[in-house]
């Protein structure tokens, strides 16, 4: 959850942007005019049905045994409201906690994972239907303990085991004193292969992922070249900026275009395509170091997260896992009071805006500089969905130009009282109830004429439009 780099900010648009100097498009009473062309006849990659996910520290299983627990019915419902997903257990503490293959007792040492902890996790996975991406301790370099842990985890999770990983952010192991300052990829490769050989001997065919790096694209390329025949998934992390202690980070920081992330996605995507192995952003969030108040826990984080998920989806990724836990401002679901945060509402908007469909290219045309993003998908129910994200302060009047006939369009809004609001966030004019249920309650009908219609998206908000 901590990173060693500072993201540079630079203008970058996922959508294809064009400016037509021959057309005068002044600000109207409805907002800045922007045209979005949908290339419905050019479908792209499919969106994974288990795209969305959450990430937690291994320590959470020990310190908060009632959280990922079958008795936490509201959390179970919150996960079900998102649909199928991946629950990742790992983080920094996965390389600090020792495995003890016995039940937990009052005499169990601190920072020790037991069979009791894994049993509770397995029961939780059963009732949610979410599969588990489980991180083993590579930090202490105890191969024997890792093999025993892997065997128990696989035996208890059974079909709910998504994948096993060795270590968390090994490219920065030296910062946590897991390895010496000269530790490099070659050292990691030797460590990883020692774990691999031992685990496979005990668990032939064990599903594995890696390298789960913090940021190092070279390690991803090298790992893909060396270990592609041994893994089922490439994984890496992303935090938009940080550390949280940095004074000049504010909500505008995460709404500004990020220059580094597209390059990281390209590295993962290229390796995935070359070796025909999917990739996943297995840990991510807005500001590393636990998130920042006024940034990570306000509505700006909803718009950031929604945009980030679509960027990852367009890169043909398997999905994302938003990190959360005790005392973290960016948690999608609070471990302290069970309330959902801004990122969770973004996850809902993505669910309803993607519908496990197929990516449809969009082209954005405007004569003015606007901070907006547009994404679209063709859905299995023969509908089309368009997500319109307005990160700027001014309203935008989107004109959607279709390439196919349509008869109806409905709009659902992701909104809040203000961009800095921590409360009052809603999607489709609905909020998540205390028991975890979510039911969209408000859609706005839109008239379509000659394959075209307009939608006004208020400043600092987003909308999901479903077209039939």
From TrEMBL:
Signal peptide: none
Molecular function as annotated in GO: hydrolase activity, acting on glycosyl bonds
PANTHER family: BETA-GLUCURONIDASE, BETA-GLUCURONIDASE C-TERMINAL DOMAIN-CONTAINING PROTEIN
Protein name per the record: Beta-glucuronidase C-terminal domain-containing protein
One GO cellular component term noted in the UniProt record for this chain: membrane
Taxonomic lineage: Bacteria, Pseudomonadati, Bacteroidota, Sphingobacteriia, Sphingobacteriales
InterPro entries listed in its UniProt record: GH, GH79_Enzymes, Glyco_hydro_79, Glyco_hydro_b
Listed PROSITE patterns: PROKAR_LIPOPROTEIN
Domain of life from the UniProt record: Bacteria
Organism: Mucilaginibacter psychrotolerans
